[in-house]
């Protein structure tokens, strides 16, 4: 048989550390954070539209 002495497979811990693979709880946390950011952006847009002043030149 041919034993390959090339690169060894990365471990799950090393993949998680390098963020090449993410855990489910991290995925949920990212989704919740993205949802909060989207809500904040929508609120800011609404605020700017309400308080927009027309420029009189």
How do you describe this structure in short?
This protein has 57 residues and is an all-alpha fold. The protein contains 2 helices and no strands. It has a domain at 12-50.
Describe it for me?
It is rod-shaped and about 70 Å long. The chain has a domain at 12-50. It has 57 residues and is mostly helical. It is 58% helix and 0% strand.
Largest sheet: none
Number of helices: 2
Span between N and C termini? 84 Å
| Rg from Cα | 24 Å
**Strand segment tally:** 0
Poorly predicted residue ranges: none
Determine the fraction of residues in helical runs and give it as a percent range.
55-70%
- Structural class, by secondary structure, is mainly alpha
From the spread of the alpha carbons, the general shape counts as: rod-shaped
Kindly report the average pLDDT value. 84
Give the strand content.
Answer: under 5%
Produce the secondary structure layout.
Layout: H1 12-17, H2 24-50
Name its key features.
0% strand
């Amino acid at each position: 048989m041919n034993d390959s002495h090339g690169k060894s497979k990365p471990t799950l811990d090393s993949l998680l550390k390098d963020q090449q693979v993410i855990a489910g709880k991290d995925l949920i946390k990212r989704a919740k954070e993205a949802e909060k950011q989207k809500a904040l952006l929508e609120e800011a847009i609404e605020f700017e539209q309400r308080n927009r002043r027309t420029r009189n030149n």
